[in-house]
Automatic annotation (TrEMBL):
Compartments reported by the entry: Mitochondrion inner membrane
Transmembrane regions: 34-55, 76-94, 125-146, 412-430
Top EC group: oxidoreductase
InterPro entries (UniProt xref): 4Fe4S_Fe-S-bd, ETF-QO, ETF-QO/FixC_UQ-bd, ETF-QO/FixX_C, FAD/NAD-bd_sf, GPCR_Rhodpsn, GPCR_Rhodpsn_7TM, Relaxin_rcpt
EC number: 1.5.5.1
Species of provenance: Leptonychotes weddellii
Keyword terms: 4Fe-4S, Acetylation, Electron transport, FAD, Flavoprotein, G-protein coupled receptor, Glycoprotein, Iron, Iron-sulfur, Membrane, Metal-binding, Mitochondrion, Mitochondrion inner membrane, Oxidoreductase, Phosphoprotein, Receptor, Transducer, Transit peptide, Transmembrane, Transmembrane helix, Transport, Ubiquinone
Subunit structure, interactors included: Monomer.
Domain 4Fe-4S ferredoxin-type residue range list: 529-558
Superkingdom of the source species: Eukaryota
Protein name: Electron transfer flavoprotein-ubiquinone oxidoreductase
Amino acid sequence: MGIYLFLIGAFDLKFRGEYNKHAQLWMESIHCQLVGSLAILSTEVSVLLLTFLTLEKYICIVYPFRCLRPRKCRTITVLILIWITGFIVALIPLTNKEFFKNYYGTNGVCFPLHSEDTGSTGAQIYSVTIFLGVNLAAFIIIVFSYGSMFYSVHQSAITATEIRNQVKKEMILAKRFFFITTFERGLELHAKVTVFAEGCHGHLAKQLYKKFDLRANCDPQTYGIGLKELWIIDEKKWKPGRVDHTVGWPLDRHTYGGSFLYHLNEGEPLVALGFVVGLDYQNPYLSPFKEFQRWKHHPSIQPTLEGGKRIAYGARALNEGGFQSIPKLTFPGGLLIGCSPGFMNVPKIKGTHTAMKSGILAAESIFNQLTSENLQSKTIGLHVPEYEDNIKKSWVWKELYTVRNIRPSCHGILGVYGGMLYTGVFYWILRGMEPWTLKHKGSDSDQLKPAKDCTPIEYPKPDGQISFDLLSSVALSGTNHEHDQPAHLTLKDDSIPVNRNLSIYDGPEQRFCPAGVYEFVPLEQGDGFRLQINAQNCVHCKTCDIKDPSQNINWVVPEGGGGPAYNGM
């Protein structure tokens, strides 16, 4: 249609002011015939495409899960047939001049829409067949399909048992009808090798560990939750390049954790500060967020922040298992890189360099495998064991092996103090060459003690200047999710949070989450509580999926790419 309009415009410029002089010649010219055929081609192809897309929606919505799976070959075949049909319809009037006469030249725009007598019965019959036959049939199909879809949606709204009132029913009706107009089929992506780089505790990697038993020969992964803030401080207190690290306070000796405070050298007085708490802690009353806020009041930290302004907040889990917790890295059709398997150097709290190196080695290994002359795979997905061999030969493996005992050394009776003593005596002297490898205690979800065996922790109230409440902090993360989407924080059993977690551990969900997602609220009728999930607050830290003592929470990917929008973090 664009070409048609361009040519009509071009000839309009050519004949402007003298159209009556050239009108008859123009309407009988080959140019007019070709331009007219382009217009019909565009119109009919558009009608057929719209009909095809409508039928696809109709089948998927009125008969869900019963239609054939989308196939590239079938779609291409239909598109080719549509274009062939369009060309046939457009070119037929040019094949028999005696029968169709001047079919496209009955008017100045070379488009056969005029109903006056053209002097050709054949042309009239053809126009009626196309415009009142084919197009009318397509129109009826489209109207019937959308009517059926709307009826199906309406019926589903009526029969939905969870609808409590008319307002909710109409909302479901509106949402499903909106789905009709925005529907797009999901895609299947097929690859010989898929590289999984989801970061710490990935949703897909978690499933791969179970399916391929990748953790059969390693310790369970252990994690920490890192909380971070970005501040603008008084320029007089700003010392670009300064780095502070602390261990311990305000945590007790049996809880692994520490902090950092970096004076950034980015042109303005910015400091990045954060606090990490090992998720193998035992006291269910501990709140990592409140420990972080309390830490900022330490005499060596608070003066730096006084007079400043907090501009960002965020949280994310990080791998702390190290060398002992690295799973099998390859399986048929894929491999794991970066923080997905856990290549972080725990004492340095750094993993970017090892993640990048693992990605480089993965790319090289895959390329070598794909270009090998002896490429033979027993499975459809390509297995690349060479990648794991290359990791073990690289400096990544050596670096992680060297520091392997530092984190688990904190599990002894002396706790963090014992870990510091071990590091000072063995690491700094032997540099990780000791002939033994310490083990982790087990999964972080198994470490909590019953609430009756622990002392509740009294946290000071936030002052609004140095320390802050949870919800105002979440607001600075920029997190956002569509409120009417299904919660991406799912429960395997709705009864467990109250019957087990609340009764035994006093509901640790409401404390270990750094975004206020979980809260136990009184029942509307009768005594007792229920777990309320404020999924829109989630900052995607994965702590709940890791620390839940019942392993009842399953973090899945939210709809529409929602989540935190960190700026400068």
